[in-house]
Structure formats: structure tokens, C-alpha cells
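This is your field. Have a critical look at the following sequence-structure pair:

***
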Amino acid sequence: MKTRVDPFLAAVIHGALENIAIEMGHKLMRMSYSSIIRESEDFGAALTDATGRQLCECTMSTPLQSGPIPGYIAGILRELEARGDTVNPGDVFMHNDPYGGASHGPDVGFVVPIFHEGALAGFSVTTAHHLDIGALTPGSCGIVDAVDTYAEGLQFKAIRVYEGGRRVEPVWQILRSNIRIPDLVVGDMEAQVAAARIGAERYGALLAQYSLDTVTGAYEDLLDYSEQLMRDAISRIPDGRYNARTFIDGYLDSPDPSLKELPIEVTLTVTGSDIHVDLTGTAPQTPNKPINMPLVGTVDCAVWLTLRSILLDSELYGPIPQNSGLTRPITIFAPEGCLANPIFPAPVIARFCPGNAVADTVMKAIAPAVPRQVSAGIGNLRVMAFSGVANGAPWVHMEIMEGAYGGRYGKDGMDAVDTLYANTRNNPIEDIESHLPLRVLNYELRENVAGAGASRGGIGSIRSFELLQDGAVSIEGDGQRFDPWGFLDGADGSPARIELIKAAGGTEDLPSKLPYRHLLRGDRITAHGPCGGGYGNPFERDPQAVLEDVLDELIDIETARASYGVAIEGGRVDPEGTRALRASVN
């Protein structure tokens, strides 16, 4: 690969770019008010060039926040051009248009242009999920009954919040007047602006130190390097077409059959060092339910993240430059009007879980080509928005309920974690109980439900919340109807389940998508997380690993016998009994 800049200097500039993005992320976390940013790290931070190509990203941020940032810039530039407007020094733009590059409305981006010697040189961008954006019910998840994008909350299309360095007060007044928890949300937005300004200042200093030409040459080399890494990995896959089909719950409690058990289909075509991803066969868009997924901002990120994770495993490759060069060899198509490429104004706010299913389907499609580089089926996530009024003021809390990975070659699936493009952290119980009228009653792993395999599937969690005063809950999730898929003779995993235990007595199973539901003091919500699929023949699992799961009370002795052919007596593996059990099925 021909380089423009000395490779050692390029490496120094690469480190400087990454450090800028990391500093932006740390500052945003430190300055934020809400736990979804401060604790769960549901944010993005990145630098782009003047055209929107991503140069670096904060390693703590979630892929679903940093990944769409080039789309944010493209959407802003397109909107400004349509208005006959331009970018000027001192401007700060707010953007959350899901049909203009943003992932969905609650993920609001703040963009600070970077000028060097009078010319636009790039953008410093922060994105973050906000707890309320003025939608029809409190919170910014569980809005599962929105009939169009206008019902999903406030829409910002390249809105200036600072012009020429001066704060545009009417915009901030509109925000405060239309958001239920303005101190929290607007405080987070101001933190985003401050963090993006820090990134712009640091990048400006880097340009002053090395010159625009040198920095430009260095990141062009880095883009080419990342592209070459991806092309080399793709070229090792046999040419051909690889197809998979999975299903999402949709709205299982709906009488309308077109809203439930919806297919996601992916066909990968590998030709040399290129991959074309085709989602033909995916269900039509839902015109009145918000589980549609923007092609730019959700579907593309699900595809990119999955292929990058499979083909450039960090365990083998170590840290590599995370930039737009990685996506150059990948093209994506989805028929207009399907779930994966909806037509405006189809609602999209609940795109999170079907997007995760797209990533899982990409994994399943490519699995036969690279069987030692994939995991079996993942257990999908769900998000709950608890809300109410305390001391005369509204409160909102968003809780991400973890899923679980499938087993992979030589490794068990990861237990109770966010999966694929989510990658956020859970909220500490102490943080929840210290400032919200909620009590967490238990938080533990499920038993006897993970997909059996030579490498077992990851185990989902059980978490229960009790309301300490009257309130409400909304749920945005999936994965309660279909088992996560097992691979290479591994057993399927187990779906999720959510139940409401009423203070007045009685228990009710809840669907994976629940609009605003009033709850009474003492009511309890218990989420049983899904478990990933197993990888490989369970009877080939190391008997000692089975014993450890028994001792850890993850499975019982009967499951060890029935699912793994392992006999355990007196807290130890019985070798003769195990050989007999395993021989009986061969």
C-alpha cells in the first residue's frame, strides 16, 4: 500500500485522533446528568473530515451511537444545501432526523464544525440517547404505538443551537418547553455541546502542530489501511452466496397477522474482496408501528459492526483504526418499503431490537463460510422505560435488560450482556435506588435454560423491579417467541419472558412490546433474559466444564445427564457413567 505520510508519523497522528475521541467520551460522561449516558455509556463521540468520513471514535461508546455519525454529517450537509445554507465558524448544529442519517429520534447529535485557516476541515460530533424527547408518552423507548415519525417526538433537522458562537436562545426555550424532564435532558445536551467543542479544539491544535496536509495525508493512509485489512479478511472467504432467514416477534398480542412473526432475510454475496448484503425477503414495513429500521443509521451499522467483529476479531488483530475505510468493501441493499428500508413518514423509534435481529441474521448467514469465527444465535435485548411523578415533577428511567451471546468455537457465550451493536452497560443498583422510586429485588442468572453445546450459550439474567409509588412502564423488546439458533449441532437457546406481579394479587405475562402501562405501588416487573444458542455437539463438551456449571448452580445434575451426557456423583464427574451415557447416543 502506497503511503502519503511516514508510517511512524501516521501512527502518532492515529494515536492523537483516538485520544481526542476518548477524551470527548470521558468529558461527556463526567458532565452528563442521566444514567443512560453516565452509567450505561449510550453515547457516541467521533471526528470526521469535512465530507463526513469518520476518522476515529471513542472506544467506550456504543457502535449504534458512533457508527451512524457519518450519516448525521451527510444528513446535515444535505439539509443545509437544500436550504441554501452554509456552515460557518462558531456554529453548533443539533440533528436527530432518522431519515437524514440519525438512528432514531432520541439519539440526538450535536455537531461542531472545525475550521483551519478559514476553511472547513472537519466536524467534532457527539451523539447520545435522551430519556425524553417529547413523544406521546414519557420516555424515549416503549413508544411502540407511534403511527408515524411525528408521534415519536421532536424532530431536529440541522438546527443551529449556536450561531457564530452565540447561543440561539429560542431553540433552547423550545426544548425546555416540550421535554418532560428538561433539566436532565437539556443538561445532557449542553454536556454534548461542551464535549464536542473539546474535540474541535483538540483537533484544531493537532492541525496547527502538524499542518492540514500532513494530518490529511495521515488519515487518508489510515482509511486505506483499514480498508485493506477488511479486504484481506473478505478475500479469505470462499466466493459465493450465503443466505439466512430469522424471525422477530413483532406484536404477538395483535390480532393483525401482518404485525407478528416477521421475517428478516439476509443474502451475502462474496466476490473477491467485496461483500454485497441484500435484505430482499425481509418483511414489508409496518405503516403504523415503529419497528421499522432506517437503512442509514441502523441497518448499515448492524451489518458493518457484525462483519467487522467476525472478520477482524480484536483478539487476533488487536486494536485497529476504527474509521470509514472499514466499510468501503461492503455494499448494502434493502428493498424500499421493507422493514429495513422504510418510506417516510413510517415510524422508526423502536428500531433497536429488530436492528439487533438484522445483525444476528448476518451472523447466521455467514456462519457456514467462517464457522470458527461466529457465535451461535444471540438472545435479543429489551428496554424498559419506568416513569411517574414524584414531588410534583415527572421522572423517567430507562433500563436496558441484557441479552446473551451464543456459544462460539472454544468459548462459551457471554452471560447477561448487551449484544452485537448495543454494547451498553447496565445501571448499578445503587444508582437506581438512590434517586428513583424503584427497588431492585433481585439480579441473578437463570438456571437450566442456556443452549447446550460443546460451547454452551450465554445465560440471561433475571431482574425484578418494584415500584415504590404509582407509576408506569413501557417495554421495547423482542425475542420472546423464537429460540436463539444453535450451530453445528448445538441446541437452541431460550427466549425471554417478562411478567407483571400485581400488588393486589395475580401474575400477568407481558408481551415484548408494551405501550404505556399504568402500575400501582407495590407492583413488580420481572424480566427473564434470553439465553444464547449452543455451539457444537453438547456431548463433546468437556465434562469438567459441565461439572463447573453444576457447582455454580447454572445447571442441575439431571440437565448435565440429559443435555451433555455427563454423570456426576458426589460432586465429581463419574468417568465410567459419562462414557456410558455418551456411548448410548452414538
In short: The chain is about 30% helix and 25% strand. The first strand starts at residue 43 and ends at 48. The first helix runs from residue 7 to 31. The mean pLDDT is 95.
